[in-house]
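W.,

You were right to be curious about this one. When I first looked at the sequence I had no strong expectations either way, so I just let the prediction run and decided to look at it fresh. Below is the sequence, 245 residues in total, followed by the output.
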Amino acid sequence: MKINIHAGHNPDGKIACGAVGLIKESTQARKVVKYVKKYLKTAGHTVYDCTCNNGTSQSDVLNKIVKMCNAHKVDLDVSIHFNSGAGDKKGNGKTTGTEVLVYALNQKPKSVATKICSEISKLGFSNRGVKARPDLRVLNSTKAPALLVECCFVDDADDVEKYNYKKMGQAIAEGIANSYCPYKVVTTRAGVISRDRASKKYTPMGKLKKGTTCIIEKIRIVDGIRYGKRSKNKTWIRMKYTKEK
């Protein structure tokens, strides 16, 4: 799969640099983009970074982002943002949370957006769900289906306490990757299969022959390694030596 991704604003210190609270949207969005790219590539996808770093105005930033996105033929455009408006800089014990915006709720990106919300909420954030925003330029002007991730709130102390850019990037990447499951792969060499004994523990239990067809129903990335959960016996395999069928 081919994917465009970008941070949604100019760099900090420049015009149209995004929300500022306990953390800065522009700085954190770029950190998250770095790890979304890393994990999507680990998951086997092609990724193009369309972040704008030299916009002269808000509209110029959007124009440049859309132009870069439309220069690539991709399956999905992903815009990374952080929300504001919670006004809870001391913390009330509850996160304001995460949401994903799409052009319309009856189009394919909604299923991807739902998966992303689910994965981010596992980090401890409230799930605000998927919302339609047909007025947003990055959603209504890109050639490919698009979605905009509002990772969490920059002005909520509870959100900021739970926030980690590496974990956020991985959650978004796994949400995208898992939204395209299940799919078939075939092994390109003999490999070990494992049983998932805990959240991130794998115990070797046997081998698959080269040329074995597997239906992958879930993707997980652990320590930089991509694993796929087989529908048969619910066992996991390393995806390095497989190809999509």
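Here's what jumped out at me. Helices lie at 25-42, 58-70, 109-121, 137-140, 157-162, 165-178. And, maybe more interesting for your project: The chain has six helices and 13 strands.

Coffee later to discuss?

I.
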